[in-house]
Amino acid sequence: MDFPNFNDIAEDQIQYHTEAIDFDLPNSTKITDWILSTIEAEKNELSSLNFIFCDDTYLHKINVDYLDHDTLTDVITFPYTEAGTPIQGDIYISLDRIKENATKFDVTFSKELTRVMIHGVLHLCGYGDKSSIEEKIMREKENFYLEKLNKE
Known about the structure:
Blueprint: H1 7-13, E1 14-18, H2 28-41, E2 46-54, H3 56-67, E3 75-79, E4 87-94, H4 95-104, H5 109-124, H6 132-151
């Protein structure tokens, strides 16, 4: 299945940034189309989305300052709109955590990165992961959309 080509729209809607690191997202056009296709499949619309790739130190500070969590994490998602309105948000991703988790789970860096990216997107689409039921649904959705990406 080919993803629709959203590039004309996506250039303004999805942006990729870095903080405290140098990183270029490989296959950004394909990933952008995949993210937009996922949002559409989940019956949502996108206003704007920023991915901010950073290191552990940067994301830890955000976790402490904004969420009062003194732990390392791989991803933090900040939604800026209510459910039922076009998605607007920021997704912060620690590449240090991605590297460590890829080794821990015996997957490639790329697979772990895309899993965490779609995890953040699914949060913006309304999925949670606090209960065991929510976590199970989140994993199923992640696997479903990762499979779609990997088929391309």
